[in-house]
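Feature request disguised as a bug: please show the residue count (280) next to Band 7 domain-containing protein in the output. Example input:
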Amino acid sequence: RIPQVEMQQRAEQNARFDQNKAGGAGICGLLLLVLSCLVMIPFFPFAICASVKVVQEYERAVIFRLGRLVSGGAKGPGIFFVIPCTDEYRKIDIRTKSFDVPPQEILTRDSVTVAMDAVVYYRIFDATMAVANVENADGATRLLAQTTLRNMLGTRSLSEILTGRDHITHEMMEHLDNATDAWGIKVERIEIKDVRLPIQLQRAMAAEAEASREAKAKVIAAEGEMNASIKLKEAADVMSGSPNAMQLRYLQTLTTISAEKNSTIVFPLPIDMLSTAFKK
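Example output, currently without the count:
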């Protein structure tokens, strides 16, 4: 489905084609066309070879006849014919292309200098507009992508840049796509590759992150000790109310100690004997 903006631009382009066709090429143009056809007759086999052109599925040919765009838009894919003496044509690749935006030194809103680069994916949806409306569609798109990236990031703080990459790329794609519609170019996707910060700022952010992690670790350790103390108190209260549980715990501790490889022999005394001695 062609967007509404593209349809409107194509309609305007076709209107210009009809106007050029109605105006004609003038008497001189007609004479040149007739002369070219007369010259092609004696050299018919060679003229056919020079007139027949082929464009691939991913290409379109924009034809100029005596300096005017030929009505009907771009030709292709397949075979088309040109008049050798009066026609010129340019092949346009309509496949999706990509280019890297060089790292841009940008001063953010909070006065931090960052370097950011990106990659842009685009394609030509109207070969005629890409030839007639701009001198170098690829170069103009590259320069516009660099200035758009600088303008977009210059109005944001460092935290917004680091956390809002998706929003930045979406807004940048819309702005760049609207600007390149008149050139017959559709921007399909923009991705931010890397954000480079100054060394001092990286160290400061790393120290801040480390301090934050240490603080969280201390809080977690303190919470663990508090929970362990609460559970230990509850266990002591349960054991104090049950002498048999205390004796079983005592025997379990002796079993754990005896499992270790040591030369110490432990002779446990019954807890009842110790409790009787303590009472006396």
